[in-house]
Amino acid sequence: MHPEFDATLAAHGVPRLRRGRVDTLQVNVGKRCNQACHHCHVEAGPKRTESMAAPVVTRVLELLAASPTIATLDVTGGAPELNPHFRRLVTEAHRLGRAVVDRCNLTILLERGQEDLAAFLAAHGVAVVASLPCYTADTVERQRGQGVFAKSVRALQDLNALGYGRPGTGLRLDLVYNPVGAFLPPPQAELEARYHDELGRAFGITFDRLLTITNMPIKRFAEMLAREGAAEAYASLLVNHFNPATLGGLMCRALVSVGWDGRLYDCDFNQMLDLPLAGGRAGMPRTIWEVRDLDAAGGLPIATARHCFGCTAGAGSSCGGALA
């Protein structure tokens, strides 16, 4: 538990956070990525070698089959598609009748060897949640690298051609906005309308929803804040904008996170800080080999830290976007 965060909860008459029923299994299959974004809390990049191995994938699928409350498999990375077992994980989860989400950086769809990736995702009904921090090239490339915007636009057009983001196809395409600096996202609905207008008018791109996600002061983004002397100011911004209305929708309330090595966490952010499930309390499982199913994670206390103010600031932030 984190004294400052838990004290803030108590000041609002809220008890310590506990997980409810688990309906989402989020799996980080590795830290290798074809990009190295400035805001990345995973510190992913082309030189990272961490990757989920076949036995871990097998055990994840066993737990998915044994956990009937879990309706969604949420696959992330790095660029999750670079894991050699990514397609097996997706195929088997789809066969089990689970919804599958791929957290995609878009440019991976244009990499050599991935020419059929978009068609594979469409064939398995995978929902694509795609990173696009702005609808203008200069802002995107300031955060994600030179040439990324043009590749992202082409990838979105290719997804649209397959039916993604088109009415009646059932192929969901959501975009993700991350601020490029030390500030909170603007109102999600207003920004989504602007994205629809700008991307539609300039490139003919359609999508379903825009998800606004607050940058967490973790890893690469934390290092950037420290270099700019903005770490304490950003931390204060998050604390001062704490919003108790966000608490009911926090992703950790209904999610369990699995690391590339099979260790269990309350969320992907805790995973990057090596803060284990339920804070590593005695008797709590630490790995996927210590549990028979994941339904038992319901009701467990949630390990908190200072970055939890990021999920609860302003309109809130989760893997599904704003909360309030």
Structural class: alpha/beta
What's the architecture in CATH terms? Alpha-Beta Barrel
CATH topology: TIM Barrel
Domain unit count: 1
Report on the architecture of this protein.
- There is one protein chain.
- By secondary structure, this protein is of the alpha/beta class.
- The protein has one domain: TIM Barrel (Alpha-Beta Barrel).
- The protein is built from eleven helices and eight strands.
- It has helices at 3-11, 54-66, 86-95, 117-123, 137-144, 148-161, 188-203, 219-227, 231-240, 268-272, 308-311, and strands at 24-28, 72-76, 99-104, 127-131, 173-177, 209-212, 255-258, 264-265.
- It has an eight-stranded mixed beta sheet.
- Helix 4 (117-123) links the parallel strand 3 (99-104) and strand 4 (127-131).
- It starts with a helix and ends in a 13-residue tail after the last helix.
- The relative contact order is 0.18.
- The mean pLDDT is 94.
